Amino acid sequence: MKRLNSQLQDDGAPMELILLIRTLLAGCKEIAFRVSQGALAGVLGSTLSENVQGETQKKLDVISNQILKDILKDSGYVKAISSEEEDDVVPCNPDGKYLVSFDPLDGSSNTDINSLIGTIFSISHAPQWMKPDDPSAFLQPGTQSVAAGYVLYGPSAMLAMTTGRGTHIYTLDKTHGGFLLTKANVQVPEQTAEFAINTSNQRHWEEPIQNYVADLIAGEDGPREKDYNMRWVAAMVGDIHRVLTRGGIFLYPFDKRNPNKPGKLRLLYEANPMAFLMEQAGGLASTGTGRIMEVMPTEIHQRVPVLLGSKEEVKACLSYY
Ligand code: AFP
C-alpha cells in the first residue's frame, strides 16, 4: 500500500510542506494513543476551565492542544498557530513559512462516551511581512489554503487530506506507525438520501432550512418524492467522514439565537478545511449565501453557517434560499 509520503510527492507538495504535515501527524498519532488509553490514563472528563468560546474544556482538549502546539513550535516550519483552544494566535518561528489552524479535538463531548472524535487542520503560507503574533495573516479566505484535513480517532485512526490535488483517505497502520493510502481520489456521490442536522435547534433556523428539512422529512409523500434517513454524530469529523465515504448532506445552519454567532462552527479550523476536502472530492460547501472557501474572515474564531456534501443535494438545499 502506498505511504503518505509518496502520495504527497505525487501530488507535487513541496518538501517543506511534506515535512510539516508529517510533523503535525506525528502529534495526531500521539493524540490517537492518548485517546485510546482513555480512563486508564485518567484523560477523560472535564477541566475547570473554559476556552475563548465559553465552552468547558475537556481534559483531552487541553492535552491535544498542547501536543500539537509543542510539536509544531519545535518543528521550525511554522510561523504561527491559531487553535480553537487558544484565545490568541500562538507565535512560533519568525522564519517559519506556514500558518497552521486547528481544532485539536473536535467533538470532545464524545470523549466520555467512547464515540467518534478527531483533529481538524488547515495550512496556509505565512506572509513574509507578518510578525508571528499578528493575527491578520490568518484572515484570508479558505481558497488560500495549501493543505487541509482531519484525523478521525475511531475504530481505526483515519486521515482525510487534500493538498489541492484530490482528497485522499489513509488509515493508520499501528503495526509500523504510518498512514497508508486506503482510498485515493475520493468522489462524493452526487445524489443522496441521507442528511445530518441537529433537529433540536429547529426553532432557531431560518425559513429556507425549516422548509428544506420539512420536505426531507415528508419523504416519498412530499415534494422530494423519496424517503430520507438521518444521522448525527455530534462530531463534525464523524459526520463529514460518513459524507465523504457514502454521500449525504451535513448542515449546521444560521442560528437566530445570537447574531454574533451566526452558526456554531468555526470558519478557520472547522468549516474551511472540511469545505476544501469536500470540494476536492466533487462535493459542494456553502454558507447558504456563498461558497465557504471564499468567506473573508474578520477574526480568528469567526463562526459561519455550514451546508456541505453531495453536489445535487446541496444545490437542492440552496434552491430554498
Ligand atoms: P467541539 O469542537 O466543541 O467538541 O464541538 C463539536 C462541534 O463543533 C461539531 O463537531 C459538531 O458538529 C457540533 O459541535 C455538534 O453540536 P451539537 O451540540 O449541536 O450536537
Automatic annotation (TrEMBL):
<dbReference type="Pfam" id="PF18913">
    <property type="entry name" value="FBPase_C"/>
</dbReference>
<dbReference type="InterPro" id="IPR028343">
    <property type="entry name" value="FBPtase"/>
</dbReference>
<keyword id="KW-0460">Magnesium</keyword>
<dbReference type="GO" id="GO:0005986">
    <property type="term" value="P:sucrose biosynthetic process"/>
</dbReference>
<keyword id="KW-0963">Cytoplasm</keyword>
<dbReference type="GO" id="GO:0000287">
    <property type="term" value="F:magnesium ion binding"/>
</dbReference>
<dbReference type="GO" id="GO:0030388">
    <property type="term" value="P:fructose 1,6-bisphosphate metabolic process"/>
</dbReference>
<comment type="pathway">
    <text>Carbohydrate biosynthesis; Calvin cycle.</text>
</comment>
<keyword id="KW-0479">Metal-binding</keyword>
<dbReference type="GO" id="GO:0006094">
    <property type="term" value="P:gluconeogenesis"/>
</dbReference>
<dbReference type="InterPro" id="IPR000146">
    <property type="entry name" value="FBPase_class-1"/>
</dbReference>
<dbReference type="GO" id="GO:0006002">
    <property type="term" value="P:fructose 6-phosphate metabolic process"/>
</dbReference>
<feature type="binding site">
    <location>
        <position position="198"/>
    </location>
    <ligand>
        <name>substrate</name>
    </ligand>
</feature>
<feature type="binding site">
    <location>
        <position position="84"/>
    </location>
    <ligand>
        <name>Mg(2+) 1</name>
    </ligand>
</feature>
<feature type="domain" description="Fructose-1-6-bisphosphatase class 1 C-terminal">
    <location>
        <begin position="188"/>
        <end position="320"/>
    </location>
</feature>
<dbReference type="Pfam" id="PF00316">
    <property type="entry name" value="FBPase"/>
</dbReference>
<dbReference type="GO" id="GO:0005829">
    <property type="term" value="C:cytosol"/>
</dbReference>
<protein>
    <recommendedName>
        <fullName>Fructose-1,6-bisphosphatase class 1</fullName>
        <ecNumber>3.1.3.11</ecNumber>
    </recommendedName>
</protein>
<feature type="domain" description="Fructose-1-6-bisphosphatase class I N-terminal">
    <location>
        <begin position="5"/>
        <end position="183"/>
    </location>
</feature>
<keyword id="KW-0378">Hydrolase</keyword>
<feature type="binding site">
    <location>
        <position position="106"/>
    </location>
    <ligand>
        <name>Mg(2+) 2</name>
    </ligand>
</feature>
<keyword id="KW-0119">Carbohydrate metabolism</keyword>
<dbReference type="InterPro" id="IPR020548">
    <property type="entry name" value="Fructose_bisphosphatase_AS"/>
</dbReference>
<dbReference type="InterPro" id="IPR044015">
    <property type="entry name" value="FBPase_C_dom"/>
</dbReference>
<dbReference type="GO" id="GO:0042132">
    <property type="term" value="F:fructose 1,6-bisphosphate 1-phosphatase activity"/>
</dbReference>
<feature type="binding site">
    <location>
        <position position="105"/>
    </location>
    <ligand>
        <name>Mg(2+) 1</name>
    </ligand>
</feature>
<feature type="binding site">
    <location>
        <position position="264"/>
    </location>
    <ligand>
        <name>substrate</name>
    </ligand>
</feature>
<dbReference type="InterPro" id="IPR033391">
    <property type="entry name" value="FBPase_N"/>
</dbReference>
<feature type="binding site">
    <location>
        <position position="103"/>
    </location>
    <ligand>
        <name>Mg(2+) 1</name>
    </ligand>
</feature>
<comment type="similarity">
    <text>Belongs to the FBPase class 1 family.</text>
</comment>
<feature type="binding site">
    <location>
        <begin position="106"/>
        <end position="109"/>
    </location>
    <ligand>
        <name>substrate</name>
    </ligand>
</feature>
<dbReference type="GO" id="GO:0006000">
    <property type="term" value="P:fructose metabolic process"/>
</dbReference>
<comment type="subunit">
    <text>Homotetramer.</text>
</comment>
<feature type="binding site">
    <location>
        <position position="103"/>
    </location>
    <ligand>
        <name>Mg(2+) 2</name>
    </ligand>
</feature>
<feature type="binding site">
    <location>
        <position position="270"/>
    </location>
    <ligand>
        <name>Mg(2+) 2</name>
    </ligand>
</feature>
